[in-house]
Amino acid sequence: MRELFSAQKWKYAFYTVSHPMDAYYEIRHRERGSVPIAVLLVVLFSFSFSINRKSASFVVNNVYPLSVNALTELAAVLLLYLLFCVGNWSITCLMEGEGRLKDIAIATGYAMIPIIVCFNLATIVSQFVAADEEAFYWVIMAAGIAYALLMVLMGIMQVHNYTLAKTLVTIFLTFIAMFIIIFIVMLFVDLITQVYSFFYSIYQELIYRM
Amino acid sequence: MKKRISIKKLTASLFAGTILAVTCAAPPVHAEELPYDTYNYTYWEDIALTPAAYVPVGTVTGATVGTDGFSEPQDLCVAPDGLIYVADTKNNRIVVLNETMTETVRVIDSFDRDGEQDGFDAPYGVCVSENMQLYIADSNHKRVVVLTPEGEFVKIIDNPQSEILEEGFDFVPLKVTVDYADRVYVIAKNAFEGILVFESDGQFTGYFGTIDVKITLWEKFWKRLASKEERAKQQLYIPTEFTGIDIDDDGFVYASNIDSDGVQGVRRLNPRGEDVIQKGENENLGGDLVVGSYGTYAGPSEFTDVTYRGKGIYSLLDRKRGRIFTYDREGNLLYIFGGLGTQEGTFNTPIAIEAVNDQILVLDAYNNSIVRFGETEYGSLINDAVGLRYDGDETEAIAKWQQVLKLDENNELANTGIGKAYLTAGENRTAMKYLELGRNRKYYSVAWKRYRNELLIAHINVIMTVVIVLIAVCLLYTKVLKKKIGRGRRTKAKEGGLA
Question: Residues B236-259: pLDDT tens digits?
């Protein structure tokens, strides 16, 4: 947690944006990254996302304002983040990836910086555009997302010391792993509910007979 | 289907409704006593309750006009001289009522055709042309009878002959209307190709305004896979039939149809038979947007008739939920009222709609009655404002819209109307406020662009000064900084790089 207040670590997060390949290598091998900062960045991303949905000018924004809920969006984003990290970790473990769970979390979290910047910038820019100038807004949004995706790709590649092709394959497999995890979790939840209802019915039976 | 009700809007409109109930002097029906809900859809396709635009002011039956009761009447028509013609279908007659619908002027149940007495068999449709001739769709006799309003025989239109008609086509006219040039437009049973058009001399000239069949990609794919025998067994893709018809002052035909997708239930056909209707922001002319998915009360609205009410305003009658939807020329939904039921002011089987002066008449085929609706202050304000806009008099409309806002403060049309008026007046900042409330992107952008230019012109001195100063500062700063960084890098390198 102390890492959150370390100026050096923060500087390095921004260095990662400008020099992703080098920085991700050092994150893996020289402990330059920080998991708390990565998680904080993901939280910030979630807030930027909600703010953009709620506050972007109505010229570009067609989101029903009452459907925006920052907390559920935060929960969803964090859950997806966790799922992606665990999914990627479980795949790369089997595919000779060198990265630890920690490195994957940092690589993904740091990649949120361009999205955070661009989403907020776009939200501000949207206040100034008219109907036929929407392109500015969308370009900023798209640039942020594209850069972030690129950073995730580079991060995974460097952290595991993969080639590009292998990275793409593992990312694809990661999504499959995520689905499997969701499936298993759902099975598990279902099983738990059944066990619970079994014991609950026993309890009820006992209560009625006493 | 989306189903959200904003509590704020709901309370606001309820509040507005109460105000209306208090202020609305004539007719003296209170909003709470209405047998139906009056509402409209917001930009977000939420239901927002509104004050009533029209309230029931009476019911006309055979007894109240001093004649035998109607029997399954199917159509009614308001003549240019104000008399009201009712096609009393099962009684095989046409009943003519006076302007105020208090008594029967005459009953036409037979006519003298070249010395022979002739009558009707189930007349489904009736229409009076601008030249004061009475057109009757005499359905079971398979002809359209043209009479003078007094019932003198003029001519008969029947048995259309053309190559484009199928072999053995059975001409059963259901609805009829006539334009200024005495061209006759007939909706006939099983005429899926469109509306039949006859010249004034009774010559059939062709079909008009065919509704295109929509075949999805998926259906095409299955057709591909199916063998010839299977294809023969599949049902044909038949276009939907038109259900009601009316004509506007320019000779454009308004025709309603039942759209199973609930997207477009009415068409405005130009003389070439092309649909030229304007759709609003949500691209929908299908009545209810929020509909249930289960039960008999579910599904999109089914329009059985349309009436053109002047100034680009037209009303559609939904037989599914007994509601009347009114749109303006731009395709904006103005107001909704009416409902099914047994109370006075509700319908069982609404079949035809007409507008006379400031009243709307709905013919109920099961109750054998005509329900009359009178406009409230709210309704007349909207009608007037839309009419003024139609005439291009936006500045005068602003006063009307402002009064509408007093009754229904979330009315998006009123906000847009006021915004547009301010925009024309050059008050761009105020226009922006109202246009944003009315959620009109196009005009908001126009206002915003103009306002932005105003701002730029007013503050160009300050802006340019700030920009130049900033550039100067940046240049200076980078020069100083470069030296510093250069020194910093060198020292870092000496220390051995990474800490």
Answer: 667 778 999 999 988 899 999 988
Nearest residue in B to A132, CA atom: B445
Helix, strand or coil for residue B443?
helix
pTM of the complete model: 0.81
Are B270 and B276 in contact, with CB atoms under 8 Å apart? yes
Residue B345 lies in a domain: yes
Best to test chain B binding among A11, A15, A30, A66 (most B CBs inside 10 Å):
A66
Q: Name the minimum distance, in Å, from the CA of A160 to any CA of chain B.
A: 22
Q: Which of B4, B449, B498 sits opposite A66 (nearest CB)?
A: B4
List residues of A whose CB lies inside 8 A of any B CB: 8, 26, 30, 58-59, 64, 66, 128, 130-132
Cα B161 from Cα B183, distance rounded (Å):
16
Give the 3-state secondary structure of residue B470: helix
Residue B474 inside a domain? The answer is no
Query: Between chains, do B445 and A30 touch, taking CB under 8 Å as contact?
Result: no
Count how many domains chain B has. Answer: 1
Expressed as residue numbers, the domain containing B221 is 54-375
Highest mean pLDDT of the ranges B151-155, B227-231, B486-490:
B151-155
CA-based nearest distance B6→chain A, Å: 9
Report if residue B104 sits inside a domain: yes
**Tens digit of each residue's pLDDT (9 = 90 or more) over B455-479:** 999 999 999 999 999 999 999 988 8
Q: Is the dihedral of CA B58, B64, B69, B70 positive or negative?
A: negative
Report the distance separating Cα A58 and Cα A62, nearest Å: 7
End-to-end CA distance of chain B: 60
B21, HSE (Cβ side, Cα atoms, 13 Å): 14
